[in-house]
Specification:
Chain A is 71% helix and 2% strand. Chain A is built from 20 helices and four strands. The chains are: A mainly alpha, B mainly alpha.
Amino acid sequence: MEVQLHLIDYIIMVIYFVFVLGIGWFLRKYMKDAKQFLEAGRSLPAWVTGLAFISTNLGALEVMGMTGSAAKYGMLTTHFYWIGAIPAMVFLAIFMMRFYYGSKARSVPEFLKLRFDEKTRALNAILFAVMTIMASGISMYALALLMEKVLGWNFNISLWLSAAIVLAYTYLGGLSSAIYNEVLQFFIILIGLLPIVILALMEVGGWSGLKEGLAPIATQKGFAPDTLTTTWKYTGAANANPMGVKWYGIFAGLGFVLSFGYWCTNFLIVQRAMAAESTTAARKTPLIGALPKMFIPFLIIVPGIVALVLINNPGSGFSIMENGKPNYDLTIIMLLKHYLPAGVLGVGITALLASFMSGMAGNVSAFNTVWTYDIYQSYIRPATNDAAADARHYLRVGRLATIFGVLVSIAAAYLAGLFGNIMDFLQTIFSMINAPLFAVIFLGMFWKRTTANGAFAGLFGGFLVALAHHGLTAPEGATTLVKGGWLGLLRTYPVEMAQNFWTAIYACASATLITVGLSLVTRREKTDEELKGLVYSLTPKITEENIPWLKRTNTLALLVLIIFVILSVLFW
Amino acid sequence: MLDIKIPIGLMFFVFGVILTIYGFMTKNDAELYQKSLSHNVNLWMGVLMLVFGGVMLLLVRRKKS
């Protein structure tokens, strides 16, 4: 299983880290106040924030997970990239972004404070801060473990060294540095994985060869021959496809609740768009991100499917077996080992390392913003009359929060090693806060009657319903309570993914019902005047009439949707 | 502010130079390229990175003048 690296591979890796740290070093002199450090001065062009937007999501766990998922479920995995992302990104761009950006809120929790009240912000800020740091810790743990397993590096050294590099460049250059490095990482992932895609397809004889190779594997599993190379065709019945979900589960669970919850309300993602230089640039950010997003499956899912063919061909010498069981998380790194000679192998491994580290940097830079503005400035030391002194003070707090965030991430990484199951469980729980959050923000933006108490109860109630659903159901054959069923067992789902979809659907639906119901019986605290710029019906519409139609945001959105439809039909 | 195209362009240009030279040096090493189905991927990717890095740097120059 070990991958042998040569001198040239290490040279490439070292050069990459020199550039990563160099970016932080060059940006340090611009970091004069908290706004520069925590919001990148709201000065970045749309193509930079757009690529960072997509790159934040292209963390290593995503690359590893999705290639592994492709080796399990085939082309069905593209649902995460098409239906599970594109409609939500277009919606964010066209309808929601202007409220986030135009409200001058510096974070998603702060938007909740402006639209609703202090307690709604506090609930969201605290949950978000804990969740991001934990996600960062889990991802670092995975990195160090992988490096130990595959490259034979010492676990502690890889953990502390990668944390030190991330700390160095986020401490020096703040959000700008994190975003710039995400753009760099985007290109290195693209170029690092490109040779595997080409070589993998060459080996199996192109797309048609791949289809032929997969047919016997699908039939052997009891599915129709083309199940693994299609996306919607076999979703008419849950047992006709390896994912075990029906089309409406994919459509409502993944395409609506999970993706809107993730793309439209997760501050980690939205923060990239908020760093853009203007409302137009902020609105274009998700759309510019959507263009490469739609083609990423060809880079990480296609090799995963080829891996499935190789796994079933004993003569290929390709294996992801670990202690007698397949470990799908190893798919991507074993593909790198299988196809790449020294030299490009270094680029591939660097791409993987890069995405781990930028994932952590993203989490840390979102954490320090929420900590500084939504917790420290709101409850510990409010702003004074001296704006210039405040800007310096909060810059210092932001920098200290960066150090603190990295240290807690390291602690979380060790905890993940000691109590892996508990961390998985907590991550599942925290993933439940996004679905109700979307319901509440959506109602807040589009229904002026939504009240603060209704929103708070919806957020909290939706979370409790998600928790209860997780506690009362379990995927088939679950052996630990971490997977669900810890309150009793009302229903079993064929696979874990189906359970997650339905948890999200119940959470979002109940949050909507609670918020609407309570809003109708509680009094509005904010006048129409106060809600201007925060609610759709009270804000002047954006007109693009004086912009040439080629440059309009709507035109770009239309282009994204057309490509989305073409791809969906092509791989139906 | 720093133009992000500069570090991107420089880094890929440097990678391109290294991989192209390495690709030439290992041109006759059949064993090394057995994995990549006998294609000299270092040379291919090296040239691709040189072009990509070069285009990025050209874009920076054009913007300045």
